[in-house]
Every structure is written in structure tokens, then in C-alpha cells.
What we know:
- Keywords: Membrane, Transmembrane, Transmembrane helix.
- Pfam families: DUF819 (PF05684).
- The chain crosses the membrane at residues 6-29, 41-65, 71-91, 103-129, 172-193, 232-256, 276-295, 307-327, 333-352, 359-380, 386-413.
- This is DUF819 family protein.
- It is a single chain.
- The chain is mainly α.
- The chain has one domain (79-416).
- It has 18 helices and no strands.
- Helix 4 (71-88) runs parallel beside helix 13, helix 16 (359-370) runs antiparallel to helix 17 (376-383) and helix 17 packs across helix 18.
- The two termini are 32 Å apart.
Amino acid sequence: MFNILATPVFTNDAVVLGILLVILAAIFVTSNSDNPKWQKFYTFVPSLLLCYFIPSILNSLGLISGEESNLYFVASRYLLPASLVLLTISIDFKGIINLGPKAIIMFLAGTVGIVIGGPLALITVSYFAPEMTAGAGPEALWRGLSTVAGSWIGGGANQTAMFEVFNPSADLFSAMVTVDIIVANIWLAFLLYGAGISERIDAWFNADASPITELRKKIEDYKDSIVKIPTLADITTIVAVAFAITAVGHLGADFMAPLIGENFPELSKLSLDSRFFWIIVIATTGGLVLSFTRARKLEGAGASKIGSLFLYVLVATIGMKMNVLAIFENPGFFLIGLFWIIIHVIILFIVAKLINAPFFFIAVGSQANVGGAASAPIVASAFHPALAPVGVLLAVLGYALGTYAAWLCAILMKYASMI
């Protein structure tokens, strides 16, 4: 991947983690400052966007490297499930159900946008640059793009499935991974910015965001009724609960994934042989179960704040995987990816306009497809930390549909490349 420096300046993950935490602290201190200049700045630039964007700049400059660091793996496998437990522990599950069918509709609209966006983007770009689709066999462009479809409808497990089914060359697959990361994260940046101006977008859609507002208010009122100054025992209990459920998630994943992979291989189409799938499902389920118990009162000592910190560390590690300069390596491939995501966005906006869906459902429905369980809760929490489970639940649905929808998209792209 293209970097200004051949090797990163900081390769020690302890140093990189320190840099990321200093960045996060600086962002949140300034975003909560009484200084009018900072207040004006954060009126236009969401703090969450900076948590993602600043590490990406450091990666592009070659100061740190998302490829050489293990921090994303640690954050996604340990901190993400722990954060989901703490963010769901005080959730009003009935309130989520009462959000209605629009969340599902927007998720499915996002899936359709990916399925038809791939072949349409391929046709459009090949019209201007036909040599791009001239490859044959493992070098056929549609084979490489099939892995992007898998990633954008479900996640890494679905991407791997498409790689195994359509067998693109190693070089082509490597280029597609770069396209996937850069384009998806550019769109993520737009969604994080949109979360900060969601009221204006909702007004344009004539959308009724009152169910979301009511859920937020209900959760905030509950938090106010149980708030307390946390003791060491409280904080230790919160962290223990989060990582105990995470441990259960890993234990369950270590058992379920190989069991299904070896005895029920047909279920791999639903990503049920993916360890990450089971970690996320078990952690989310554990948090939801605890929300019906006395553990819910841990929110009064700041459970969601600790969960949000874990999630922001994940945001920083995601940003650190993005190198904006890599777009110059294969500009034609990135052009296809950009056309593809634009078609996805257009369909989302058309459907949202037709059903008057608030921007929250657009953002979460899109990321449940394109980002999966790693970033869907991030986008949801940009609206409010308590809404993170909505993103997770839709992302799980993405796992189930991912392989089938990505396979259909790949077949359509195969025929589109023949036009």
C-alpha cells in the first residue's frame, strides 16, 4: 500500500495505542470545552469523525500503520463485544421493537443497492475504459469485485466465501481489499458527518424521528434516575461484566464455529461458521439478557460511558487502516467502487424519501451492509450510545443475507462484463 514513508515511524503497538488515546482525549476535551472557537468548530465537524479521520491521516503519512498493527484485531475481538455488552445493558428492548419496520426496509434497500450497484458501476466504467474488464480467468475483474460485494453485504466472512467461490487472483484480490477499505470508510466518514446534521436531513425527508427521540429520552431519563458517583467496586464490576460476557462469547464461538463448519457446512452460507459472528451475537445477546436483570443499574455508575470509550478506540483503529493515498495506485478500480457506493446511496435516499424514513435508519441500514458488526454500532452510537444495539441487530441480519446476495451480485457482474 502506498505510503509517504516506506516503513511506519512507530511500529510498537504500545506506542501506537498511546498515540491513539492521546488523540481521543484531545478530541473529547476540546469538544467539551467552553471556548467559543472550539464550540463553533465542533458545530460543523463531529467529534466522532475526527476520532476516525486523524488516525487515517497518520497512517497515510506513514507515521503509523494499520496493516502492521494488531490493534484493530484486539479492538474488534475484545473491546467491541465488551462495548456491546455495556451499551445494551440498559437498553429498552421493547423500545427498539417499537421503532417499527422502517429500519428493516432501509437495510434491505441498502442490500439491493449493493447487488445492482456492482454491475451498473462495472458497465458504466467499462464504457469509458473497456480495457479494465478485458481480463480473463482469475484476472477477470468481476471475480475480484465479487469479494467486495461479500464484504459490503455482511463482512469479512462473506468476503472470504466469495473469494473461495470465484477464485480471483491474489494480486486482484489484494487490490479489491484496498478498494473495499478506502471506499467503505469514505462513506463511513459521510455518515458520521450526517449524524451531526441529522435533524436537517430528516426535515428534507419529512421524516418522523419521534420514535427514535422517544427511545433516547426514555433511556436518558432512566440513566438520570439511577446515576451515582462510581466507586472502584462499581468500575471493577462494570469491566468484569463486560469482559466476562466477552469471554463467554469467545468460548461459544470456539465451540460453535468449528462444530458447524465440520458437521453442517451448508450453514457456512449464512456465516454460521464464523467465529466473529458468534462473538458478536453472544455478546449482544448477553447484554440484552442483562438488561432485564439488576445488572441494568450498572448504567448509573457509567457502564455506557466505558462502553463508548471501547467503541471509540475501535473507531481510531478503523481509521488507522485507511490510507487515502492508496487511491492513486489503482484509480480505475476506485472509480468503480465510488460509482458502486453512489448507486447504493441513491437507492437508499429514494426509498427513504418514499417512506419518510429518518436519516438514522439510512445510516444504520447502510452500515449494517457495508460495515457489518464492526461499524454499524459506531454509526448508531453517533446518534446516541443507547442506539448501538439497533446497528448490531441489523448487522447480524447482514451476515445471514450476505453470501446469497453477494453471489447474485457476482453473477450479475459476470454478465455485465460481457456487455
